[in-house]
Write a structure and sequence with these properties.
This protein is of the alpha+beta class. The chain has one domain (4-108): Alpha-Beta Plaits (2-Layer Sandwich). It is built from 4 helices and 5 strands; from the N terminus they run E-H-E-E-H-H-E-H-E. The protein has helices at residues 18-27, 67-71, 77-81, 92-99; strands at 4-9, 36-47, 50-59, 87-91, 105-108. The longest helix is centred in the N-terminal third of the chain and has 10 residues, at 18-27.
Length: 114
């Protein structure tokens, strides 16, 4: 069985928190828990007129890649609701190929397989 995961393109994440809210609503999580959590990196200047300021959606231990949704042929709710379309779901080997195509991406793969 193939391992599945998320490819997150944090170059294009706008920091809207839609992934967090959609996940909380889908799984009935309390307001202080998340299946995916948005982390803000920066801002800081690391060279003259060059700033680091990024948002990075980070899946947590509570992320099960929306196993119930996926079993019905749907995508995980964070992927479905991402307004910037910067989260992709698929087989990890295919996501890894896409990871090599451009910088500022990360792969999340839980220990479970679907």
């Amino acid at each position: 069985m193939n391992a599945y995961g998320l490819l997150i393109d944090y170059q294009w994440c706008t920091g809207c928190h839609t992934c967090e809210v959609a996940c909380q609503m889908e799984h009935g999580l309390p307001v202080d828990q998340w299946g995916i959590k948005l982390v803000e990196v920066g801002p800081w200047e690391y060279a003259p007129k060059t700033w680091q300021y990024t948002y990075l959606p980070v899946p947590t231990d509570q992320c099960d890649l929306c196993a119930d949704r996926v079993s019905k042929g749907k995508t995980p709710t964070c992927v479905h609701h991402c307004q910037a379309k910067c989260i992709e779901y698929g087989p990890v080997d295919e996501l890894a190929q896409k990871l090599a195509e451009k910088p500022k991406q990360s792969i999340f793969c839980p220990t479970k397989t679907n």
